[in-house]
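Researcher: Structure prediction, please.
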Amino acid sequence: MKYVRWYQGLSNTDVGLVGGKNASLGELFRALGGAKAPVPAGFAVTAAAYRDLIAHSGLAPRLHELLDGIRPHDTEGLMSRARQCRDLVREAELPEDLRAEIVAAYERLVAEQGPDISVAVRSSATAEDLPQASFAGQHESFLNVRGQTALIDACRRCLASLFTDRAVQYRINNGFDHFDVALSIGIQKMIRADLGSSGVVFTLDTETGFRDVVFVTAAWGLGENIVQGAVEPDEFYVHKPTLAQGFRYVLRRKLGEKKVKMVYASGGDATRNVVTSQDERDRYSIDDADVVRLAELAVAIETHYSGLAGRPTPMDIEFAKDGRDGRLYIVQARPETVVSQRHGTVMVEYRLTGTGETIARGRAVGTSVATGPVRIVRSPSELGSFAHGSVLVADTTTPDWGTVMREAAALVTNRGGRTCHAAIVARELDIPAVVGCGDATRVLTDGEIVTVACCEGEAGRVYRGAVPYERNETDLANLVRPRTKMMVNLGNPNMAFRTAAIPNDGVGLARLEFIITESVKAHPMALAHPERIRDSSVRDAVLRLARGYATPSDFFIARLSEGVGTIAAAFYPKPVIVRLSDFKTNEYAKLLGGADFEPAEPNPMIGFRGASRYAHPAYEDGFALECAALKRVRETMGLTNVKLMIPFCRRVEEAKQVLACMAKHGLERGRNGLEVYVMCEIPNNVISIDAFAEHFDGFSIGSNDLTQLTLGVDRDSEIVAFDFDERDPGVMKMLEMAVEGAKRNNRHSGICGQAPSDFPEVAEFLVGLGIDSLSLNPDSLLSTTLRIIDLEASIAMSRAIADRIRSIDS
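Model: Predicted structure follows.
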């Protein structure tokens, strides 16, 4: 055949022949088809068909006339000329030999796959899916196409979509000549995802560029809803390094709302959206086995394409799960062309320096901040009046809006997840976006000034007014590592991938209570014993949290292990020191269901907290759940870089009891390399450090509590706050004794309190003592690292001079 090529005969070298999308499908089918990466059968109509259509119809002069006169910033003029180009191509008659070949190939596909099949008809440009320009979403695709007449019509509309407004604008912006790009058509058997589910897989984290995870999104029905942002999908992460070691688990998950699904339609429409049932919204659209299988396929595809390119090539992959046979199919794969293309050694960080009223909240896309006037767009007819620098607010966006989105300072949508159209465009344009807000078009007002912030973790926020912020750049090109290990304090799993990008030596303090607050939200004992909750409405709320899990205890173990696991995976294989829960009774009581399990104490700061709780009957069942979650992180997830740390351990005898309790729950010190540290935050920890060293592998100084108990100052009391000073000579002596005591016993010494973050002189004092590690807040890690590098160089020079003087004297 002159115009038709079957997928099994194509490879990634055929972009000029069949476009990027078809060449990629051919490569998948040829190299990874079958059991490795099942790809639905299909064929390509070559780009020569488009060129022959233009020549046969004599359209070139008129197309040149329309396209050569386009002014890029004249939105209305561009839209008018592009529409005329589409009409010319769509109305042109296909050459008879082209029509005949398409029909013959289609009939062969039907004969091979069965008479009840329908096909997807997709555009594939010859400049598509390139590392420097994806062209993703610029051209049209048509789903559930049946019969010869519908097929030919879809092919003509595909060819005409080379001149969508967004495609014309995209070529102009990326320096492509309109007549150097041609369009091929892909015709592929459709998988019955309308009866199952579908989604998108990235082989990196789409916000931070973190490459050690596979990121999977999925929803019920056909995949178009995810791409267009019509639904908030389910989200999953799988950790590549431990997957390669044989640990098959889901690192982290988030249940999406999935309010609608796209299914086949009858009559004039090929597809339609229907409302999902409550059961579908409450369930994940794919199970854990599907997620892990998709991750394995994604890694295999990434490995194959990286080999072809001769360099790491993160991938953007589309999949469909057939609702009839339950199998997963790969329906598209292309190189990821935004996050993975960011080069350079300059780290850019945004930070809010003021506060404001939050008026909308959703999923953050990107890590930046922007301020501007709101412009609500409710229909495409309103796009023409969009002003440059405005914040575009809409229910959702579509590829047709591309020309206007490039003028926006930020994007805010009611619907969509992190792989929707608005998110993809925002990353490409390097502007912040907050998607899936739910009510942005209702709560925001046209013309009001807002600040769109995506620098605060997974949640993106829209603040009223112009909230001040700063943009900091750090050149990491020649940054050396100090002798002192520079670690980070972290308790929010949503910040893990982003924080891991800062030069570091691991996590010196992962606060379990912060992870419980962020990921679990309920009191551990309330989940262990919901029947003890007296208020029925609170009990119902606890049980609602745990819906979809066999028991509330299973919910706690899963969510806590995923939170800890996310932090451990982000820094793997560097050490991550996880401190067991250190809520005070008044803090525990604020958790959902906590009031029924916590006593009222006059001074919770020195009351029922830390180690004293773990073996106590009032909390032992809750501690058992903590241990089960941490055991899952180390043994099921394979994240053995996790070390554990006991907080507020008052006496050596208490240490023995806690270690015995942990061993009973499967966390035995020394087993499978498990190291257990203790917080050095009570004067008795310092005074009896030799005795404590017999039971622990290391010490982490908690300067906040050590200062409180050394000076006798309640750090929660504003009245005596002026007396709380970590730089007091008595506190500094305690720090010195702790570091020297750890050294004397060959134990790790570190500090994870607030003092090194707040006071450079404390950090410098500890480095001079030879402390092994400092653990600081993320916002002070880089600046302190630079100071420590200079300090260590100064200390080394002073010692060299002293040694030289001694040698001369001798």
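Model: The mean pLDDT is 91.
Researcher: Thanks, that helps.
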